[in-house]
Amino acid sequence: MAEYKLLKKDGNAKRAEFHTVHGVIQTPVFMNVGTAAAIKGAVSTEDLEQIKTQVELSNTYHLHVRPGDDLIYEMGGLHKFMSWNKPILTDSGGFQVFSLAGLRKIKEEGVYFNSHIDGRKIFMGPEESMQIQSNLASTIAMAFDECPSSVADHTYVQNSVDRTTRWLERCKTEMNRLNGLERTINKEQLLFGINQGAVYEDIRIDHAKRISEMELDGYAVGGLAVGETHEEMYHILDVTVPHLPENKPTYLMGVGTPANILEAVDRGVDFFDCVYPTRNGRHGHVYTNQGKINLFNQKYAKDARPIEEGCQCPTCRRYSRAYIRHLLKAKEMLGMRLTVLHNLYFYNTMMEEIRDAIDAGRYQSYKEEKLYRMAQGPQE
């Protein structure tokens, strides 16, 4: 059984260890997003080990559509399939239901929608999501939910959240059943529930209380970073997180920028994931402690410096801004690979710094200094 050890609190910031069947996760942690069982940008499993990745995140819906979770089960599960022996979290497909709004129909039993690849009809409900994730044999499975739009009205959101709660009960029942089967690869698979409620604090708080009673392995806050302001997001965290169990992991889904992460850690969040570092990297936007820079800018054409002086990532130890800019302009895959490696290393290193700052009881000063430096912008 998983164990979450709270090692230290600094204000509301939590420093913990989460013990799983695939190893110990030091939190706060940023999970590196590999939607289809690979980090976009030609990043290998060896690379992930080199850039301090603790948890890889893959997507249930995408792997169900291609290559198929049955195939991955036959190959021994996702860990064997992608040759990665540390923790993996799979998200449930619920967010794809949100993002594929034009292709879906939501009913009590689940969601009917069309594949974004070949248009074939797919049905996914709580049981199907758990079965797919059990086939994938991830360390942590996410409950199947609906992610309502942040601009949906109160009545719609309340009805949606009520249904998500009923779905969560079905997920828990099905996960328990699957973990007891002889054929199951990972019989220690963990289940995280997801708090929803758009920007309505009454719905958020009530839902947090309801799911906290269900004794799950961890709790996520979903449905943020989907159009609301940063201030609204921080306010929802302020009012919601105190109603989730302090002795379990709290995961803010799909967030975010370095500043978002620093602020959310301060509000008691300890798991994060986001496509920003990989997506931005592939478009030439790289993170530094002085903010983000765009390598496509002409001023970097003859810049012999690394992306960031003193950075120990594989990219900065060897290559110049000028060379990486050339690769990106020439549409050479190596350019994207080098920028993604740097950005993920930057994020993973920032999480290390956050953990060290909480350990030392100086998180506030660390956060303020980091935010101040990044807001200054690059000193050219």
Automatic annotation (TrEMBL):
Zn(2+) binds at residues 311, 313, 316, 342. Residues 12-374 form the tRNA-guanine(15) transglycosylase-like domain. Gene3D superfamilies: Queuine tRNA-ribosyltransferase-like. Substrate binds at residues 91-95, 145, 196, 223. It is an enzyme of class 2 (transferase). SUPFAM superfamilies: tRNA-guanine transglycosylase. One of its GO terms (molecular function) is metal ion binding. One of its GO terms (biological process) is tRNA queuosine(34) biosynthetic process. InterPro entries: ArchSynthase1/Queuine_TRR, TGT, TGT-like_sf, tRNA_ribo_trans-like. Its cofactor is Zn(2+). Keywords: Glycosyltransferase, Metal-binding, Queuosine biosynthesis, Transferase, tRNA processing, Zinc. Its EC number is 2.4.2.29. One of its GO terms (cellular component) is cytosol. Binds 1 zinc ion per subunit. It catalyses: 7-aminomethyl-7-carbaguanine + guanosine(34) in tRNA = 7-aminomethyl-7-carbaguanosine(34) in tRNA + guanine. The active site is at residues 91, 273. Homodimer. Within each dimer, one monomer is responsible for RNA recognition and catalysis, while the other monomer binds to the replacement base PreQ1. Belongs to the queuine tRNA-ribosyltransferase family. This is Queuine tRNA-ribosyltransferase. It comes from Roseburia zhanii. The lineage of its organism: Bacteria, Bacillati, Bacillota, Clostridia, Lachnospirales.
